[in-house]
Structure formats: C-alpha cells, structure tokens
Amino acid sequence: MEEEKKKKKFNLFDMFNSQRVGKGVEKGEIKDPNFKNFFKYFGRSFTKLLNINLMFTFFCLPLFFALFAIAGYFDKSAADVSHPLASALNGFIVSGEINPLTMSLYGVYGIKDGMTSQISVMSLVFYGLSALTLFTFGYANAGMAYTLRNLMRGEPVFVWSDFFRTAKKNLGQGMLVGVIDAVIIILFYYNLQFYSANSANTAFYFMYVATIFFIVIYMLMRTYIYAMLVTFKLGTFKLFKNAFIFTFAAIKRNLLALLGIAVAVGINVLLFFFFIPLGAILPFVLTVAVCGYIGMYAAYPKIKEVMIDPYYDEYGNPIEGKKAES
C-alpha cells in the first residue's frame, strides 16, 4: 500500500511512463461519434491530449533550431537605404569629396529607412539541424495517429511507449510517408507565397485560389493517411489514394472537422495577440493534439465502417478468409 501511494505522487517524467499505475483510458470505445457527443468524449480525453501533444513536440524537437535561426540571434543587421543615389553619394564621401553639396544630398537621399540582415554561419548550421525534422516528422504524426485512434477505440493509451512502439513498427514506411508529407507541405507553402506575391496577374491569381483549394483537400487527407498507416498494411501509394477517396466519401464529417480545426487554431491566434506567452506555448502543449483529435474523430468512424466492419461479424470475430487490420 505504501509503495502504491508513492507511485501515485506527481512526477513530471511519470506523465509518459508506460508502467504508471492507472487505467489509461476510460468508458470504452466511442459510441455514436457525432457532433452532439464530441464535447463529452473530448473532455474525458483532455489530459491524454496534453501528453500526446508534448510527445509530438518531442519528436519534432529539431524544428526548434529553425526557430532560433529565424529569430536572427546570430545574424548581423545593418541600416539600409532604398534610394539609388545613396550608394553613389556614399562613395563620394568615402573618397574624400566632402562638401556642402554632397553632404546636403546625402542628408536627403541617404536616409536609412530599413534594416538588412546577413545570415550567419551559425544560423545556416541551425537550419541544417532543423532539417532533421524531415526524418522524425512521420514518426511524430504516426505516433499521434496511433494514440488518438486508441482513444477512439477505448483501448489503453500509454503515450511514451505507444509513440516509440509505433515508430519501431513503421520504421521504413513511417519515415517515407513523413518525408513525402513534409515536402508536400513545404511546396504548398512556397507556392502560396509565390502566387500571392504575383496575384495581380490573372493567371497567378487563379493558381493562388487553386493552391488554397488543394491545401484544404490535402489537410483533410492527412488524418486518413496516418490513421491507415498505423492500422493497416498498405503500400504508400494506396495510403494516399485511399485518403483522397475518403476525403470526398465523408465530405460532411470532414468539413465539420475542418471547421472545428479552424476554430481551435483561431482561438490560439487570438490568445497570441492578447497574451503572447500563452498563445506561443499552446501549439507545443495542446493545439496540435486538439486539431489531431478533431480530425481523427471525423475520420476513424468512416475508416472503421468501410475497411474494418465488413471483415468482422456482429460479435466482433474475424470472418474466415478475411483480414483487415495489421
């Protein structure tokens, strides 16, 4: 009894301990996963979502190097001028042509109206280290999908061991899917920036709108991709193909999920503007897992209906000659 009481005391590292004394999950599989029941199930999973988000952040830890590089702590900054005469006048002054005329003109056209920064070697090193996220991104998403799926099923969830078990089980395909996923996201980001900057052109404006449309479609696909990755033995091409089909087959649920994710992100952004420390820290401790839970709440019931239920009888026993889950 004394030993059990000691185990129940709070310990920061014990939050992720797979041997922790406790029930892990409660009340069984989610029944009737509709909008009406969402908040009830979300409330009972809230503590687990905090742990899941922290583990996701841990797997994406190299990304923090990019944040330091973007902050520019290691870069050199200097005042900049935009007028084309400024450099010529500066050349006259440096060469000794100092007179009332050059100084007067320099006072008008040499006004420093901005700052320019030169990226340092240390920043380049940090950007390189952050690129390691490409190789952990798939495992982070797969681990989150696995734990969120188990929450939907009412199965025990032990975050630390579940994440690493999922990474080990999907060692090759998890990394491959993660790299593809990250590259697609990066390409979408740069396409959006490029077409936005050139949106005055009608063709580029059309491409800008089309890019937004494809981003929405892909964001809906991502939940299905990782949910199927940790549930079935499917080729990588089939994962993306099936995810695309599910995106339109369950369009109503997906659009509701998209709306819920937009609300969660919107609340985070508002908090950032009103209280920066809280808004900045939330994505690392809660927001990502909340968005993932909303997506899984919409996606998994459809996956279960189409790819799992037909292979089991009414008592939950596998139908002979059929096998769906890995």
Number of strands: 2
Question: What would the principal axes of the Cα set say about the shape?
Answer: elongated
| Coarse structural class | mainly alpha
Q: In percent, how helical is the residue content?
A: 55-70%
**Low-confidence runs:** 1-8, 10-26
The gyration radius over C-alpha positions equals 26 Å
Overall mean pLDDT score? Answer: 80
Mind describing the biggest β-sheet? 2 strands, antiparallel
Q: Termini separation (Å)?
A: 40 Å
Order of helices and strands: HHHHEHHEHHHHHHHH
| Strand order of the biggest β-sheet | 1-2
- Number of distinct helices: 14
Oligomer: single chain
Beta-strand content = under 5%
Task: Tell me the layout of helices and strands.
Layout: H1 2-8, H2 35-44, H3 46-59, H4 63-71, E1 76-80, H5 85-94, H6 100-109, E2 114-118, H7 121-130, H8 133-153, H9 159-169, H10 171-197, H11 202-229, H12 236-249, H13 251-274, H14 276-308
Antiparallel strand pairs: 1-2
Describe it.
This protein has 326 residues and is mainly alpha-helical. The protein has a domain at 26-63 and 132-311. It is built from 14 helices and two strands, in the order ααααβααβαααααααα. The protein has helices at residues 2-8, 35-44, 46-59, 63-71, 85-94, 100-109, 121-130, 133-153, 159-169, 171-197, 202-229, 236-249, 251-274, 276-308; strands at 76-80, 114-118. A two-stranded antiparallel ribbon has the order 1-2. Helix 3 (46-59) crosses helix 14 (276-308). The chain is elongated. The protein starts with a helix and ends in an 18-residue tail after the last helix. Residues 1-8 and 10-26 have low confidence and may be disordered.
